Amino acid sequence: MKLSAQEEYGLRCLLQMASRGDDASLSIPEISKAEGLSIPNVAKLMRLLRIAGFVKSVRGQAGGYMLAKPAETILIGEVLEALGGKLFGDRFCGRHSGLESVCVHNTDCSMRALWLGLQHMLEKVLFKATLADLLKKEAFMQEMLETRHGALILPEPATAKLANA
């Protein structure tokens, strides 16, 4: 299972704006340079984020894009859904029915129960984390996840792995 590039890069674009403050605006070339992404890719992402209501465009010489609402109110789960959808949505089974119009496991599917459970667990985490939370250090995020979701077993931070290598 993996997040799409669109979801990762879209979140990174939002974080660039949030790191500058709720009232700061950034142009597409500025975001592109800061994140190491192509201008067309950033333009596409900003369009999706604008349509979803996370950013607004600002006209004029100091124009660009800015957050449409405070970073503390932007839920990561909402951003990921706007950029890529759910891991397991309502139409999942219909899209994966093979050659049949309805999946052959439609009446009793242990995989559906697994995917629904996983989706529920993801939502418990992603709909409590905000863009403002992601502005903090990695150790804070790990501690927050352990505090809010004690059952989670988190690996050691990537930075610690790099330091030990």
Write down the Rg. Answer: 19 Å
Overall mean pLDDT stands at 84
Biggest sheet, spatial arrangement of strands: 1-2
* Binned strand content: under 5%
The CATH superfamily appears as Winged helix-like DNA-binding domain superfamily/Winged helix DNA-binding domain
Segments where pLDDT lies below 50 for 5+ residues? none
* CATH secondary-structure class: Mainly Alpha
SSE diagram, text form:
Blueprint: H1 5-20, H2 28-35, H3 39-51, E1 55-58, E2 64-67, H4 76-84, H5 92-95, H6 110-126, H7 131-134, H8 138-148, H9 158-164
Helix pairs in contact: 1-2, 1-3, 1-4, 2-3
Short description:
This protein has 165 residues and is mostly helical. It is 54% helix and 5% strand.
Descriptive notes:
By secondary structure, the protein is mainly α. The protein has a single domain (5-155), classed as Winged helix-like DNA-binding domain superfamily/Winged helix DNA-binding domain (Arc Repressor Mutant, subunit A). The protein is 54% helix and 5% strand. A two-stranded antiparallel sheet has the order 1-2. Strand 1 (55-58) and strand 2 form a beta hairpin. The mean pLDDT is 84.
